[in-house]
Write a structure and sequence with these properties.
Trigger factor, domain 2; 4-stranded antiparallel beta sheet; Alpha-Beta Plaits; 3 domains; alpha+beta; Chitinase A, domain 3; 448 residues
């Protein structure tokens, strides 16, 4: 039996559920008899243990199970009877005192319900649709990056198939191998000494003063110079201090980049070494990457517009649950990166804003999909899987990979559903095309 639903707050509700103690006792006795059939105890054959001993051993556990089942069933029945869309799980508390009828058990169930809202006219919503072109300039830049990834070094001054490297002094782009010793107030410090240490000049791996002192040296030459560590330097013992370094250049190598020829094309997987085909392949790969990033940016703009366009209260329970999920995901991600997270706290409150937005968007998307029949079709899911597969050497294996696991397919389905929503909103909202330069779209990846 359940009382009428009481409204506590905008989304918070409470109801009292009760049932006779005799029902609980009867069910407990029934379950204990079932346990008794297989119960074991020293001195008794299985199934012959006296009921008093069975009750002593399992009584508390069984009673707890029965109460949980009874309360759960009663709550679900009350929720159905009152057409309640319960968000999360109810908080159950036993009720005592004169409010409880004699011979009954009563519990207060406090819970939240999903908000009631509709997504209205989206004509006033403002969305940016990003566009980016892949030109010959981007293809040339990518080829340069691919050449640098395949660089090999030759000792300066030693004649080889590609020459001797020209100027025998250290230049930007050369790989220098040095011995160095650093001292502060005449005393060596931890991490301030190394032998046969190699680095490429111009990559920014070393502090500017260190690179500047190396430039111009020839193999066998040494130099002593001051180096001021930045205040925010990662080595706290030396941060903000000035050290005196002595470096000796032991070996100097110049970088040889492969020529853009048929051999280079073959290295990139073009079997016949055709340079035109190589450029076409690179362009297609860049366009595929651009397509994904453009879609992501446009989707972000659509989601921002939806959050602004629809206002409603979000169930706190769902936000807390998602905050805990985000905290755990962050912990696992950091652990997989090799970071020690054993004693690092991950309070869900840190993720509250992100969780609130995720829950809000989830509710908006669900409402849009339901109201406008935007569910993902089998054909759309198949097309998306095949699109994923195109960037792999064996597309059919990738297709099998997705279709062999329902959870993987569900992830694809969620992506398609989001795309359906984006397409729907773009057809309703005030859309502004925004041309984004390739380098800006790609960010740091363009400089890899």
């Amino acid at each position: 039996m359940a009382t009428a639903v009481e409204t506590l707050d905008k989304l918070e509700r409470r109801l009292t559920i009760s049932f006779p103690i005799a029902e609980v006792q009867s069910e407990v006795e029934k379950r204990l008899k079932v346990r008794a059939r297989t119960a074991k105890a020293p001195g008794f054959r299985p199934g012959k243990v006296p009921m008093k001993m069975v009750a002593a051993q399992y009584g508390y556990q069984v009673e707890t199970e029965v109460l949980n089942d009874k309360v759960g069933q009663a709550f679900n029945q009350a929720a159905n009877d009152n057409n309640l869309r319960v968000a999360g799980y109810p908080r159950i508390e036993p009720k005592t005192g004169d409010a409880v009828a004699e011979g009954n058990l009563a519990f207060d169930a406090t819970f939240e319900v999903y908000p009631e809202f509709t997504v209205g006219d989206l004509a006033a919503a403002e969305v940016e649709q990003v566009k980016t072109e892949v030109s010959d300039v981007e293809i040339d830049k990518t080829i340069d990056i691919l050449r640098k990834q395949r660089v090999h070094y030759h000792v300066k001054g030693e004649q080889g198939a590609h020459g001797d490297g020209g100027d025998q002094s250290a230049q930007s782009g050369d790989r220098a191998t040095v011995d160095f010793t650093g001292k502060i107030d005449g005393v060596e410090f931890a991490g301030g000494k190394a032998d046969d240490f190699a680095f490429v000049l111009g990559e920014g791996r070393m502090l500017p003063e260190f690179e500047a002192a190396t430039l111009g040296l020839k193999a066998g030459e040494s130099k002593t110079f001051p180096l001021a560590f930045p205040e925010d330097y990662h080595g706290k013992d030396v941060a903000g201090k000035t050290a005196e370094f002595t470096i000796t250049l032991k070996k100097l190598e110049w970088a040889h980049l492969p020529e853009v020829d048929s051999d280079f094309a073959k290295m990139l997987g073009v079997a016949d070494g055709d340079l035109a085909k190589m450029r076409t392949d690179i362009k297609e790969n860049l366009e595929r990457e651009v397509k994904g990033r453009v879609k992501a940016k446009t989707k972000d703009s659509v989601m921002d517009a939806l959050v602004k366009a629809v206002e409603f209260d979000v169930p706190k329970t769902l936000v807390e649950q998602d905050g805990q999920r985000l905290a755990e995901m962050t912990r696992q991600d950091m652990a997989q990166r090799g970071m020690s997270v054993k004693d690092v706290p991950f309070p869900p409150e840190l993720f509250a804003a992100q969780a609130e937005r995720r829950v809000r968007l989830g509710l908006i998307l669900a409402e849009l999909v339901k109201a406008n029949k935007l569910q993902a079709t089998a054909e759309q899911i198949k097309a998306q899987v095949e699109d994923f597969a195109q960037s792999y050497e064996d597309p059919q294996q990738v297709v099998k990979y997705y279709y062999s696991d329902r959870s993987r397919l569900a992830e694809v389905e969620a992506l398609v559903l989001e795309e359906n929503v984006v397409t729907y909103v773009l057809g309703k909202a005030k859309v502004t095309d925004k041309v984004l330069p390739f380098d800006e779209l790609m960010g740091n990846n363009a400089q890899a």
